[in-house]
Amino acid sequence: MNNNTKRLITDNIVVIVLILLVVGFSIGNATFLKVANLINLVGQMCLNALLASGLTYVIILGGIDISVGSIMAITGILAAQLVLATGVTQTPVIIILQIIVGTLAGAVIGLFIGYLIAYRNLVPMICTLSLMQAFRGLAYIISGGGPVYGLPNGFSVLGAGRLIQTASFPTGIIPCIIIFTVIVVIIFHLVLTKTVFGRHVFAVGSNRNVAHMSGIDTRRVTLLCHMICGICAGLAGVVAASKVNNGHPATGEGYEMFAIAATVLGGTSLSGGAGSVARAMFGCAIIAVINNGMTLMEINAYWQKVVIGAIIILAVLLDMAQKGEKE
């Protein structure tokens, strides 16, 4: 095998793995490739896709944020409480409120995290690990220790509603959550790839000192990357609350690991300087296919956690191998 072939396989390993998984689960269970299941599968990856979009920015910097699951819980509860407090019942107004709460609350929390890391020089892992616990506790406090329920039906449209009703799909074909997620992912993909700020993110992640000497405000870039990560986690939180039509303090538990795994699988280097929101979606697809396929084949749910953990280790090893080849 020549070097070009090796490089082609290495660069597209995530796509190859995804194809192999789809083929394998299709053979293992005939239901896997049915339209209803595929739509359900794509819907299942949406929350992870939202989180991974924001985490890509932070990980490109060489950082990490493991508080995103707890941020989901806080924003979902705040959105539910706001809708109850205002008494609105019109679906468009409720959706606007959900998006506003997810964006603003997520941005404020993200800025707080970014400030601690960029301006107070806290280690990202320790900082976000501590805040993961603090935010989770805060979610239980502001919710009174239980779910916020009694919400109007319009609250569930963003996360559980569907469009285009047919005879075969009387409740609708395309989930609203998919449309919303695609829009968010495209926006943050374009910000990373088509803006000066995006180029600054890669520069800071590649070499912070060189970026600083080149005139880039590295602390500002770090602050904004965590703000974006917070926004994505906030939007994921309101969508998660919408899916179950309540705000729950346990929302998002364990989601940070799925999102980190998806981001790394998509080729975002844990050492910083390389990554892509678009490619992170392949990582999200792999995790969704594994969870969906193993569920259809009635494999114990605990084994799914084992597999995801193994995938993270393999992704890190691949990242290290690719970095070693470049050096």
Give structural notes:
There is one protein chain. With 327 residues, this protein is an all-alpha fold. The protein has one domain: ABC transporter involved in vitamin B12 uptake, BtuC (Orthogonal Bundle), CATH 1.10.3470. Helices cover 74% and strands 1% of the residues. Helix 2 packs parallel to helix 14. The protein is globular, with a radius of gyration of 20 Å. It starts with a helix and ends with a helix. The mean pLDDT is 92.
Poorly predicted ranges (pLDDT <50, ≥5 residues)? Answer: none
Q: What is the overall number of helices? A: 15
In CATH, the architecture is Orthogonal Bundle
Distance between the termini: 21 Å
What's the order of the H and E elements? HHHHHHHHEEHHHHHHH
Number of strands: 2
Q: Largest sheet, described in full?
A: 2 strands, antiparallel
Shape: globular
The tally of domains stands at: 1
Structural category: mainly alpha
**In which range does the helix fraction lie?**
over 70%
- Amount of beta strand: under 5%
What's the average pLDDT? Answer: 92
- Give, in spatial order, the strands making up the sheet with the most strands: 1-2
Computed Rg: 20 Å
